[in-house]
Design brief:
single chain, alpha/beta, Rossmann fold, 9 helices, 8 strands, 48% helix
Length: 275
């Protein structure tokens, strides 16, 4: 089955160190801009070269403003140094994934859950790690590595990806080309859509809040809180705990469905719900 999302414009955001190979600019000029201009799509790409954290965040705000004003569905390519915690800009400042979360959520709402990210950053795949299943998803999907990557493989892999994607608009075929680009070196880049992000986040939620030990602690805390209210005086401790347990555990499938409805934006874009 083909993965389907809408996109109108590719934004390349490069913030590398002064002595780095400028892989983002090279990818933009030699592949992305060239391929789009061959299709007479001159306005469908843009390059940002932020040097500081505020520059980088302003770049995201400019993309948001254009998405809101012109109803553009953006595809954002990040060329930066990264770690499991976030990305680094030219002047050495760090932007943690959690700092990007709300901005990307706002942008993803503006483009109706169609935001796609390609991460040419070491550990870029860890952008999923701050996702909260009780919030909305910050993207439709992403491509990124879960380990260190070198400038050469970044350029080879993403050149193959964008050459195919701009021609075919087929995300699955483009990912295949990306993974085949280094025949002697297994690709470190992985494609995941928002379902992957939710499943990982929800599994972490269950491990954190729904283990027997944690549930027991939460029931005791809930009991103490309930006893502060006179209307519970006629109930036994066990009755209160059973009532609390119903909402915490026994009814978890219903609660998961409610989380999914908000996370995947089905409540505001019902057409996104899979049949």
């Amino acid at each position: 089955m083909k993965e389907a999302f809408k996109f109108d414009k590719i934004y390349v955001v490069e913030s590398l160190r002064p002595d780095d190979l400028k892989t983002g600019e090279e990818l933009y000029n030699d592949t992305i801009k060239l391929k789009l201009w061959q299709k007479d799509l001159y306005a469908n790409c843009e390059l940002f070269l932020p040097k500081s954290k505020i520059d980088f965040l302003n770049s995201i705000e400019k993309i948001k403003a254009e998405a809101e004003k012109k109803s553009i569905y953006p595809l954002i390519h990040l060329e930066m140094h990264g770690s499991k915690d976030g990305v680094q800009v030219t002047n050495g400042e760090i932007i943690k994934w959690i700092e990007l979360q709300n901005r990307l959520i706002e942008l993803n709402i503006l483009c109706k859950c169609n935001l796609f990210l390609t991460m040419a950053t070491c550990y870029g795949g860890y952008i999923y790690s701050t996702i909260n299943p009780s919030l909305r998803t910050p993207f439709w999907g992403f491509i990124g590595p879960f380990e260190k990557v070198k400038a050469g493989e970044v350029l080879i892999n993403f050149t193959a990806f964008y050459e195919e994607f701009i021609d075919s608009l087929d995300i699955n075929e483009s990912v295949i080309k990306l993974n085949e680009a280094n025949p002697n070196n297994k690709s470190r880049f992985r494609f995941h859509n928002t379902e992957f992000a939710f499943n990982v986040a929800y599994q972490n939620y269950e491990k954190k809040y729904l283990t027997d030990e944690v549930v027991t602690e939460r029931l005791e805390m809930g009991l103490k809180e309930a006893r502060k209210h006179p209307e519970t005086n006629h109930l036994s401790d066990e009755q209160i705990k059973q009532s609390l347990k119903f909402f915490m555990v026994d009814n978890k499938d219903f609660m998961k469905e409610k989380l999914m409805e908000k996370f995947f934006m089905w409540d505001i874009f019902p057409e996104k719900r899979k049949k």
